[in-house]
Amino acid sequence: MMPFSELVLASHNAGKLKELQAMLGDAVRVRSVAEFSTVEPEETGLSFVENAILKARNAARISGLPALADDSGLAVDALGGAPGIYSARYADGQGDAPNNAKLLDVLREVPDAERGAQFVCALALVRHADDPLPIICEGLWHGRILHAARGEHGFGYDPLFWVPECDCSSAELPAAQKNQLSHRARAMALLKQRLGI
Ligand SMILES: O=c1nc[nH]c2c1ncn2[C@H]1C[C@H](O)[C@@H](COP(=O)(O)OP(=O)(O)OP(=O)(O)O)O1
Ligand SMILES: [Mg+2]
Q: What pTM did the predictor assign?
């Protein structure tokens, strides 16, 4: 059974918020952390899980509501898993376009066979700010980094992420299809199972 009727989504990323909201449907009333503060907490953890918990606790603290956070990123095989937890800050916090340009540049000489990558998502749900037992669910999505951007949907690294099972980039997938397949979708499916929704 769903243990609460309202939830704050602890993300300042519009693309992520849209996807999480669509996946949750009307199972729970969703608020955004931006209603409570525009200050983003520093992501000081060394893992996706630690950063997700840190963001969830922060949102629960400032809202007084249960909070769900998503920490996610792109782990590229040829880069030993980078940019990983630093994906949002890859080009020093300048945003998606510079992040993508940097990734294309560092992988310029890397052949197709070595361009494997996975999107990683850790979801953390805390019932209150000091919850001693956060619910954690993870999801992975395997693909390959393209040589040039393709597609207009999604956000972040989507235009550079080739999805073998669809024969297109994740930015070429309609939102509904990405929301069935992605790292975030997989983590969310586990979370819904866990919550019985
Ligand atoms: O489905 C995705 N499609 C494309 N790119 C993605 C995806 N999922 C994560 N990403 C990238 C975006 C960002 O570069 C980093 C997440 O960083 P991350 O710190 O978790 O999120 P964020 O700072 O954008 O918002 P917030 O921390 O407020 O939730 O990975
Ligand atoms: Mg972030």
A: 0.98
ipTM score over 0.90, yes or no: yes
CA 153 to chain centre: 15
**DSSP summary character for residue 112:** G
- With left for phi above 0 and alpha for psi between -120 and 50, is residue 150 left, alpha or beta? beta
> String of b and e for 125-162 (b: at least 16 CB within 10 Å)?
bbbebebeebbbbbbebebbbbeebbbebbebbbbbbb
Ligand in closest contact with the CA of 11 = 1
CA angle 55, 57, 61 (to 5 degrees): 120
Is 1's pLDDT higher than 60?
A: no
Handedness of CA 57, 98, 147, 108 (dihedral sign): negative
**Strand boundaries in 46-191, DSSP class E:** 67-76, 116-126, 135-145, 161-163, 168-169
- Three-class SS of residue 61? helix
Q: Is 118 a residue whose pLDDT tops 60?
A: yes
Atom of ligand 1 nearest to the CA of 89: 14
Q: Report the distance separating Cα 14 and Cα 11, nearest Å.
A: 8
Which residues neighbour ligand 2 (ion) by CB within 5 Å?
88
